[in-house]
Design goal:
One of its GO terms (biological process) is error-free translesion synthesis. This is Co2+/Mg2+ efflux protein ApaG. Pfam families: DUF525. The structure is a single chain. This protein has one domain: Immunoglobulin-like, CATH 2.60.40. Helix content is 0%, strand content 71%. It has no helices and nine strands. The strands form two sheets. Strands 4, 5, 6, 8 and 9 form a five-stranded antiparallel sheet that branches. A four-stranded antiparallel sheet has the order 1-2-3-7, with no helix packed on it. It is elongated and about 50 Å long.
Length: 128
């Protein structure tokens, strides 16, 4: 598991390999990632958008931007936590992801970016 704190918001990520799948007649490696967002600040915040950079050892970087996370824009009061799981398919057994969440602080009404630390995607059978 990897973790990082930005402006009192702690992001923790754990990953797992889910298996191989054929999609469009090509082999893909499926990974799940479990993200926990903890509000250690003194203000209520809301996650509004996300940005991902997906690195695949066999392909170029894929960038994904979108509203919220898994269809939600969670509001976290001080001390609250939001957890969700998602996944991705890549063409190789090795890759990584990193990104950020755009959030709004309800006290200051300012938008700010919370870093999601780089996390590895690696199939256990491919490790030496």
């Amino acid at each position: 598991m990897v973790s990082q704190i930005t402006r009192g918001i702690k992001i923790s990520v754990a990953t797992s390999f889910e298996g191989t799948y054929f999609k469009n007649h090509k082999l893909h490696y499926a990974f799940n990632y479990h993200i926990t967002i903890e509000n250690h600040s003194k203000d209520s915040v809301q996650l509004t958008t996300r940005h991902w950079e997906i690195f695949d050892s066999l392909n170029d970087i894929e960038t994904v931007d979108g509203e919220g996370v898994i269809g939600k824009k969670p509001v976290l009061k001080p001390g609250e936590t939001h957890t969700y799981s998602s996944g991705c398919l890549i063409a190789s057994p090795f890759g990584a992801m990193r990104g950020w969440f755009n959030m709004i602080n309800f006290t200051s009404t300012r938008n700010f970016r919370v870093a999601v630390p780089t996390f590895r995607l690696s199939a256990p059978f491919a490790l030496n």
